[in-house]
């Protein structure tokens, strides 16, 4: 008897993407049509707007739709040339099971990074604080801001005094880097002004850690991550600020 193959459950956002793709292939939405708003789709499907947002980005990556920030989401001309199939569920990408939704990743960071910042304010060695400061200074918002942003957060994790917590945060960042949906979402919504805002928020985190104020460090990191979530949830029909 042959061995059974492991079965992985599709991510919710990919099931949603499959349902929307099915409606496109069935002709309910034609090339050039604007899709219903995220709010309407979420109400029809009885899911969160974050899951719909992730599904629409997945559909863009698959070539079904074009996302136009400030205008909405439109059916791509190429979608009409796809072979129809009943209720398609887009295949899981070959990422070794690491294709986490961006909002799940950010919400998990929101659970752990504020406590990490508070610990760093309490136990970080002077040389570790110097590394955090260097990462903050290096965050030139015109050149590779994403790399310096990552270094800032990971240097705080390394300074928290808890290897397991630091490893968890590092893994979350690795998953984010591997997620094409996360990358595409950032490409749409993380603008120059967003990086400048993030740099100002980093300044508050750094100041609290430098002044050995764990409560303020926790709140500053929490506010920063909540701000990121809010910016990535900006409506597609509005121009990102």
CATH topology of the largest domain: Four Helix Bundle (Hemerythrin (Met), subunit A)
CATH architecture of the largest domain: Up-down Bundle
CATH superfamily of the largest domain: GntR ligand-binding domain-like
Strand content: under 5%
Helical percentage: 55-70%
Total strands: 2
Mean of the pLDDT scores?
Answer: 86
Q: Helix/strand-derived class?
A: mainly alpha
Number of helices: 10
Q: Profile the largest sheet.
A: 2 strands, antiparallel
Concise account of the structure shown:
The protein is mainly alpha-helical and 241 residues long.
Describe the overall structure.
The chain has 2 domains: 12-81, Arc Repressor Mutant, subunit A; 102-232, Up-down Bundle (Four Helix Bundle (Hemerythrin (Met), subunit A)). Strands 1-2 form a two-stranded antiparallel ribbon. The model is unreliable at 5-9 and 84-88 (pLDDT under 50). The chain has 241 residues and is mainly alpha-helical. Helix 1 (12-25) packs across helix 3 and helix 5 (126-138) runs antiparallel to helix 6 (145-158). It has helices at 12-25, 38-45, 49-62, 102-123, 126-138, 145-158, 163-178, 180-189, 192-210, 214-232; strands spanning 65-68, 72-75.
């Amino acid at each position: 008897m042959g061995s059974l193959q492991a079965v992985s459950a599709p991510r919710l956002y990919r099931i949603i993407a499959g349902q929307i793709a099915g409606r496109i292939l069935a002709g309910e939405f034609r090339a050039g049509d604007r899709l219903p708003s995220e709010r309407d789709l979420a109400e029809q499907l009885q899911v969160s707007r974050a899951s719909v947002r992730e599904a629409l980005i997945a559909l863009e990556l698959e070539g079904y739709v074009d996302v136009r920030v400030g205008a909405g989401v439109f059916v791509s001309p190429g979608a009409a040339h796809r072979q129809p199939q009943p209720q398609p569920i887009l295949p899981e990408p070959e990422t070794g099971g690491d294709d986490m939704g961006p909002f799940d990743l950010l919400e998990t960071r929101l659970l752990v990074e504020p406590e990490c910042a508070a610990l760093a304010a309490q136990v970080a060695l002077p040389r570790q604080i110097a590394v955090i400061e260097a990462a903050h200074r290096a965050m030139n918002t015109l050149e590779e801001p994403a790399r310096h942003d990552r270094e800032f957060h990971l240097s705080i994790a390394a300074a928290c005094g808890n290897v397991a917590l630091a490893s968890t945060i590092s893994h979350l960042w690795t998953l984010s880097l591997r997620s094409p949906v996360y990358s595409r979402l950032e490409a749409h919504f993380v603008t120059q002004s967003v990086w400048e805002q993030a740099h100002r928020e980093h300044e508050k985190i750094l100041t609290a850690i430098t002044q050995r104020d764990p409560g303020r460090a926790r709140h500053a990191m929490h506010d920063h991550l909540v701000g990121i979530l809010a910016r990535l949830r900006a409506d597609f029909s509005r121009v990102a600020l």
